[in-house]
Amino acid sequence: MLRMVQINNLFDSASKRRKLIIRFSILALITFFVAQVIPILAGEQNTAVESQTVVAPSDTSTVTLAPSDTSTVTLAPDETSTPSASPSPTPTYVSAKAIPGQGMDIQIPQSITVDPRAQVAQIARIAAKGPVYILICIRANNLVMDVVSKGSPDDVSASNLYLDGDFSSNLTLAGETELVISALNSAGGLRVSGLGRKLAGASLDFTFIATDKMADNRALCGEAAQANHRTVRFTPLGLGMGLKKGRVTLN
């Protein structure tokens, strides 16, 4: 009986040793796995993570443009320069011309009766009809003519009236016919002064020229038709010292 117990104890001891050896082997395997396999797996995992997080140099590097890309683009002259407009031609001036025919209706007195002692007189009845534009030239000897503003010269070179020679012996007016005649008859009409001499016996020469536009000089004064010449003479009143007798009836 004792022998059986010893045999059983022996088997129990052997069984315990086997269990310890198995446990030790398992622990050794686990320790080897932990010491060898896990670090390898962890290293591979880290390598994989690093390979995923590292950006390729072509993606992270700063792109540097070539000189042809960074340089300032200079446009050709024909692209940047503003095309300059060609200079407009200078208009050619064309002077007025006398129109063919020269037909017009002129009304002006042939003589002006003045006091024999008079040194100043005015001509208020001058008219001309027919042409759209007219040039009137007046010439006198030893007389001075005054138009528009009396007592001061009124030379005018406007877009619608030309007046030259005011307060002189050669007077010129040009423009639209109605305006010229109005200027000539303004403020009581054309005033004539003998400059201290008597007017009786003196005269004025008028020439009327129809033009295609407003004249601005006296160049056409010599082209008046013969029918458009006029002369105005200053004649003295017929005063005498003779005695006349007559019957006067008083009521």
Structure, explained:
With 251 residues, this protein is α+β, with helices and mostly antiparallel strands. Helices cover 29% and strands 24% of the residues. The strands form 3 sheets. It has a 7-stranded mixed beta sheet. The longest helix has 52 residues, at 2-53. It is rod-shaped. The relative contact order is 0.15.
Low-pLDDT residue spans: 48-66, 68-75
Oligomer: single chain
Percent range for helical residues? 25-40%
On the 0 to 100 scale, the average pLDDT is 78
The number of helical runs is 5
Q: State Rg.
A: 64 Å
Q: What is the strand arrangement across the widest sheet? A: 2-12-11-5-9-8-7
Measure the end-to-end span.
Answer: 216 Å
List the helices and strands and how they pair.
Elements: H1 2-53, H2 57-60, H3 67-70, H4 77-80, E1 105-107, E2 111-114, E3 120-123, E4 127-129, E5 133-140, E6 144-146, E7 156-157, E8 161-164, E9 170-176, H5 177-185, E10 190-193, E11 203-211, E12 229-236
Parallel strand pairs: 2-12
Antiparallel strand pairs: 1-4, 3-10, 5-9, 5-11, 6-10, 7-8, 8-9, 11-12
